[in-house]
Amino acid sequence: MSDALDTTREFLNAHAPFDHLEPDALEFLLPRLESRFYASGERITDPDAGPARRFHIIRQGRVRGENPSEDEQVSGKAWELVPGESFPIGALLGRRPVHTVHRALEDTLCLELSLEDFDRLRTRSPVFNDFCSRRLASLLDRLHQGLIAGQLGHSGASGQLNTPLGARVTREPVTCSPDTPLRAALTTMRDQKVGSIVAVDGEGRPLGIFTMTDLLSRVTLEERPLDTPLRQVMTPDPIALPDSALGFEGIETMADHGMKHICVVAGGRLVGVLGERDLLTSHPLTLDRLVRGILRADTVSTIADQLRELPRLIGAVIHQGAEADQILRLITRINDHATRRVLTLLRSRHDIADIGFTWLAFGSQAREEQALTTDQDNGILFRCKPGQEDETRERLLPFAQAANQALAECGFELCPGNVMAGNPECCLSGTEWERRFSRWIDQGTPEHLLKSTIFFDLRAIDGDPGPVEELRSQLLHKTAFNSRFRRQMAANQMRFRPPLGLFGEIRSGSDGINVKLHGLTPFVDGARVMALAAELPATRTHERLDQAVSAETLREDDAHDYHAALRYLQMLRLRSQQQALAEGRDGGNRIRPEELGTLEGRVLKEAFRQARKLQGQLAVQYQL
């Protein structure tokens, strides 16, 4: 008996979540597991058998989940389970019958636990209970922690970007009145050994901040006397975030505004001041230096030099626990700064000062989902009097083409499909854009559907955003009332299928899997269809999923799984691009599943299954 328990213990210690069970929970589990053999083809669970009564862990063999009443390859409900995987957790938690048949694909041995002991184990083990409640997310947490631990050792930095700002504050803020003489403020900064001081009102609300940068630019260079009141040289209305905001929001805010410090408030009252070094402690490269270097660049080549530092900074952010979607937003914000600076440098070289126009981003930049390597998808929306469209376009095109070339010099590859502002087809007046979108929606040709996957994600980067928001509103209204076009878009999003075989196994070709096309695209396209159907204003994929839940067009449990799967695939792509850049090679969208560990291979398969499930839901909804 002891040898059998030791063998079982060794097996469980090799598979999540059992390898992380608390010692007393593992000792509770081991003697209660019963081994049962199932011959090839035998049903292990059946919807007709009543509420599920046993928890199964596959010890050896393979099990297929199947639903003969549906097209499993469309619905995403066919899958294969292998040793270490378990079922049917959802049915046990819900005290209901299983939805699918679990059938042994070959002679199979399962370790089984009664429903009563399953419940007792959940009570005894927070690890097991968390796994049962949030299966995919729990595996992803384990995977993410393991990756960070491997990269950082025991630095303790893991996860700090997803802890509240209040937890990062380690000392009382240094404050004064806005009427404090400059000499007194500087003396306080020296005595307290800080690089900033915050001017507050009588209730402790921040009114301004004075930093060493202000000392140089507003005091020393302007030869201000030291009896000058602080209010005359401080930066007024400092950016303040609540103490409940996450560390990444602080980093994001710094990137948006090109600043080194943020005020942390509770109920409007200042409770601390954090610098970038307080949030990004593991890397010498500073976000502030990178953003300021872009904003102050006087040549395109200088911008390009600054952007070459971006992968190193993003590496530090990844190592400190940021989620994939947060990292993509940060990359996009920095790229937005670079785009705006390029446009500023080029404007003076072209006779366009009297033209009102907005620089547009399409695709991943519009969704704020740009990765480390990306190409350009951009355009121009200009304003002019009726009849002057061609004349205005001719004046703007040289500027737009120069901007496309400059952005290419900065590392944003020219779009192979020529979706760029320098293309006359992408440099249009607001009325022309509206007519074009209306034609695509009304006609819905294959070419129109392909273009809609790029152009229907749009965002203003530089210039007046008002006309762009008006265009987006018109677009959402038209698609919401055109079910034929939405059905065509839903069918179009089936183009890229997750690489799963008949039994749910991952299929990988000789050159690996394109994780962008076959992993991310099903989520991006599916969320877009839902947004257009319900007139959801969001552009980011994760935000669209959340808004679909609020609009009651998507179940919260499904959205939770889609979020987890999408974040994993986004992070997997980022890691692949990091490796490609480090090795000096092109690409980064392709991965080889066989090079992943057991746990990560399991997560990848589940992420692909969730993508297939989302496609299946849309197929059912639109009767495809």
From TrEMBL:
InterPro entries the record matches: CBS_dom, CBS_dom_sf, cNMP-bd_dom, cNMP-bd_dom_sf, Diverse_CBS-Domain, DUF294_put_nucleoTrafse_sb-bd, GlnD_Uridyltrans_N, RmlC-like_jellyroll
Any Gene Ontology biological process: proteolysis
An MF annotation (GO) of this entry: peptidase activity
SMART domains according to UniProt: CBS
Domain CBS: residue ranges: 169-226, 234-289
Domain Cyclic nucleotide-binding, residue spans: 17-121
Pfam family, one: DUF294
Annotated keywords: CBS domain, Hydrolase, Protease
Top-rank taxon: Bacteria
Full protein name: Prohead protease
Native organism: Thioalkalivibrio paradoxus ARh 1
Lineage per the UniProt record: Bacteria, Pseudomonadati, Pseudomonadota, Gammaproteobacteria, Chromatiales
